[in-house]
């Protein structure tokens, strides 16, 4: 990933944190958003394990689509 795409991705992430996840803030995985994105960038394969209802199925996909597009 180039630095220019990281810059645009970072601005997308801040948009995500302010408006699009207002209802997701109560999910445990929402509190770890920055750390999840960091680990995905650092590791080619990232395994995220969470209990039912923690937000991995819904919120994680939203993070990936917005941050890495």
TrEMBL record:
Region of interest called Disordered, as start-end residue ranges on this chain: 1-20
Stretches with biased composition (Low complexity): 1-19
Annotated keywords: Membrane, Transmembrane, Transmembrane helix
Keyword Transmembrane part of the UniProt annotation: yes
Membrane-spanning intervals of the chain: 45-68
Protein name: Uncharacterized protein
């Amino acid at each position: 990933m180039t630095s220019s795409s990281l810059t645009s991705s970072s601005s997308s992430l801040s948009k995500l944190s302010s408006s699009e996840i207002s209802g997701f803030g109560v999910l445990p995985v929402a509190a770890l958003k920055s750390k999840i994105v960091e680990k995905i960038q650092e590791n080619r394969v990232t395994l995220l394990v969470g209990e039912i209802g923690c937000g991995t199925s819904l919120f994680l996909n939203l993070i990936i689509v917005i941050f890495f597009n």
